[in-house]
Write a structure and sequence with these properties.
alpha/beta; D-Maltodextrin-Binding Protein, domain 2; 2 domains; 16 helices; about 5% strand
Length: about 425
């Protein structure tokens, strides 16, 4: 165990002192923070709500700008005109007279105002009246008129609103010839917000795997590996290398994830995405560790098959394609789910579940609690086979000299218990 920890410490120190690793982390972190700063500059509405001016005659229109944000419209959801407003997107200011309201609009104290009366509102603005505000006020005015008409007929607007709200449309899929009572709910806003987290997860696993493959290849090419295996068994060397680079990956994940969260905080857009960051962060760590465990030992084997830098592209291409397939599937299949059943099955499979399942956790509103747990168990069940395969390739490939070796050559070789001294000359 002491030898494993020494190897792990060496790998961590060497990798973290690498100028390339330090510069890449700093550049990516600065890009995230720069993006958050740019969002704050160019999307100012994400910070201060627009102020809408009203008079004592039109103050009832305030419910149109608060019902959607608070979820309380006094039992009449149509009061907000059917629009769902972001929290704190608008706030209202009441003025005693229309002259005071016009003065406030003229001096840019409010973005626009609603004067006149409740039955006949007058839209007041400095320049063209905002289109979204016009739509909200128009819908609210129509709701007021409808309320007056229903009341004049002896009806109750609240009963009518409840009746309308309880109406649900059913869909019939002609491909499956089944009637669907409900659709699988997907939060597209959460999808956009979670895309950055998914990218960080992909980069962390991908970069860690590349570090393992490159490190093994460099040690093999420089013949350092022959000295190492004379003192440490290949199995312990592999385990220590994986532990050390996993620690490097965790460090990168913390730095990049922290910079991404910092960018969201700077931009002021973090409140726009309804994501439980606490729960999601815990699951992201689980998928990160599981993804590393799945890919890391195979990347080590791929690095052992290469004899020089140019060979790495050929020996790691399959692993790279698997990772990119999982990442792009998470981007497109989850964001635009046309085949839900296929997505549910594929997200359970090893190699791609570390990308697809967290994306589903971010986006889907109908995923069952047991699905990610089942996916983890399936991956854990296949891990021993992957570890055995990767360790076998690594053990038989690190001491092979000459040109790049192939899988059939690896499995045809006999285990070599220890390295021989390199011949002089």
């Amino acid at each position: 165990m002491k030898q494993v920890l020494l190897v792990a410490k060496r790998e961590y120190v060497v990798r973290m002192r690498s100028k390339a690793a330090i510069i890449s982390m700093i550049v990516i972190a600065l890009l995230f923070l720069g993006g958050g700063t740019a969002a704050r500059i160019f999307i100012p509405n994400g910070f201060e709500p627009d102020v809408i001016g009203l008079t004592t005659q039109t103050q009832d229109y305030a419910m149109a700008f608060t019902a959607g944000a608070t979820g309380d419209s006094g039992g009449d959801d149509s009061a907000a005109g059917g629009f769902t407003l972001k929290e704190n997107q608008y706030k209202t200011e009441i003025y005693p007279s229309e002259q005071d309201l016009e003065r406030a609009v003229q001096h840019d104290e409010v973005v626009a105002g609603v004067g006149g009366t409740l039955d006949e509102p007058v839209l007041i603005s400095k320049g063209k009246f905002p289109v979204m505000l016009r739509m909200i006020i128009q819908a609210t005015h129509a709701s007021v008129k409808l309320n007056q008409y229903v009341t004049s007929l002896g009806g109750d607007m609240r009963d009518l609103s409840k009746e309308i709200a309880s109406t649900q449309l059913k869909t019939k899929n002609l491909e499956t010839e089944q009637a669907d009572d409900t659709d699988d709910g997907y939060d597209f806003g959460a999808y956009l917000g979670g895309l950055g987290m998914l990218l960080i997860l992909f980069l962390a696993i991908f970069m860690s795997g590349q570090m393992v493959a490159t490190g093994v290849m460099e040690e093999k090419a420089s013949r350092v590996i022959e000295v190492l295996v004379s003192a440490v068994s290949p199995a312990r060397l592999l385990v220590g290398k994986i532990i050390g680079i996993t620690a490097v990956g965790v460090t990168q994940l913390v730095v990049l994830g922290g910079s991404a969260l910092g960018a969201m905080a700077i931009s002021g857009l973090s409140g726009s995405f309804q994501i439980d960051l606490g729960t999601l962060s815990g699951w992201l760590i689980v998928w990160f560790i599981l993804g590393l465990a799945t890919y890391m030992v195979l990347y080590a084997g791929a690095g052992a098959m290469a004899s020089k830098q140019e060979d790495l592209g050929q020996t790691t291409i399959i692993l790279m394609l698997l990772q990119m397939a999982g990442f792009y599937a998470a981007m497109f299949m989850v964001g635009f789910p046309g085949k839900k059943d296929v997505l549910d099955v594929v997200s359970m499979l090893p190699f791609v579940n570390c990308y697809l399942m967290p994306a589903r956790q971010i986006v889907s509103t109908t995923m069952q609690w047991w699905e990610p747990i089942l996916s983890v168990l399936i991956n854990l069940a296949i891990l021993p086979v992957l570890i055995w395969l990767g360790a076998k390739i690594y053990r038989r490939g690190i001491l092979a000299t000459g040109s790049r070796i192939h899988l059939k050559d690896v499995f045809a070789r006999q285990d070599r218990p220890r390295a021989t001294r390199p011949k002089n000359g």
